[in-house]
Amino acid sequence: MTPQRWLDFLRIIADQGDAVALRYFRSPLLAVTEKPNAGPATQADLEIERLARQMIEAHHPGVGVCGEEFGEMQGASDSRLIIDPIDATNNFVRGIPVFATLLAVERDGEIIAGLVSAPALRRRWHATRGGGAFENGERMRVSETGRPEEATLFHSSLNNLSPEQRNGLLALSAITRRQRGFGDFYQHMLVAAGCGEMAVDPGLEPWDIAPLLLIVEEAGGRATSFTAERTIYGGSLVTSNGLLHETALQFLSGRDAASRQAATPAAR
Contact at 8 Å (CB) between 223 and 237? Predict the structure, then answer.
């Protein structure tokens, strides 16, 4: 199928998934279980992923699935669905409306379609490879800010950073104008929309990254692991407007002196 047809299919999954998420959000019926070393899971997580898998089996048999809750289902096709049924489950559990279903289609190792749906925010972001990135139907574009001292830096929890990375992030924070700890999918969508210049996220799985990488790239930005790999399998994610990407990577490497030198020319 073409990327656009896959995107149409992702929209159908998202429409049904959003209904499930909103039914449980801030509901006294919400039950939470703790996965070993992996944080919370709820009925919404399980139901949305089951729904997506059932739809794949019904409409696209042979397509594999990689999901947070039920793992890998091998398929005969060169394509597979990647799903995080509720990204930011901790937010969801605490009644914070910043959560989303993340959906992507990977073909031959490349993400060709991606969708992020945040029903409590009434926002949806999507992209197809070569087709641009959109927020609620409006074209997205990263910012053109190339000076660190004019930049906004987003980050997630500091607990998942190594001491070296944490020190690097704090040093990067010191030279940027503003810093906000949104975390999860939302900070990367803000980068894609031009609302900030850099976002830093450690400790991730492929389903946390897949649609975000595509959307940021199609908005004109850059998305890599902390070690500069363009992959959803690197365990971390740095997104940027492209102009400040190397600056972010330098600081996260922990080489503070080199990082400051690298940032100085852009600051002039």
Answer: yes
- Alpha helices by DSSP H, listed for 131-242, are 163-175, 184-192, 206-218
Number of domains in the chain: 2
Q: What is d(CA 260, CA 87) in angstroms, rounded to the nearest whole number?
A: 34
pLDDT of 38 strictly over 80 = no
Nearest 5°: phi and psi at 193? -85, 0
216 Rama class: left (phi>0) / alpha (psi -120 to 50) / beta: alpha
Distance CA 22, CA 202 (A): 28
Give the long-range contacts of residues 57-60, CB within 8 A, separation 24 or more: 59/9, 60/1, 60/9
Residue 91 near residue 25 (C-beta atoms within 8 A)? no
The pLDDT tens digits of the residues spanning 186-206 come to: 999 999 999 999 999 999 999
Residue 114 structural domain: 3-130
- Identify whether 139 is part of a domain: no
CB 174 within 8 A of CB 256: no
* Spatial separation of the C-alpha atoms in residues 216 and 195, rounded to whole Å: 12
Instruction: State the average pLDDT over residues 8-13.
Output: 98
Integer Cα distance of 12 and 18 in angstroms: 10
Question: What is the rounded distance in angstroms from the CA atom of residue 145 to the CA atom of residue 160?
Answer: 28
List, edge to edge, every strand of the sheet that includes 64-67: 71-73, 64-67, 79-87, 100-107, 110-118, 123-128, 132-135, 138-139
Q: What is the DSSP letter of 121?
A: T
pLDDT in the model for residue 255? 59
Task: Report the predicted TM-score, pTM, of the whole model to 2 decimal places.
Answer: 0.93
State whether 36 and 111 are in the same domain.
yes
Q: Is residue 213 part of a domain?
A: yes
Q: For 141-191, how does the pLDDT look when each residue is reduced to its tens digit (9 = 90+)?
A: 999 999 999 999 999 988 888 899 999 999 999 999 999 998 899 999 999
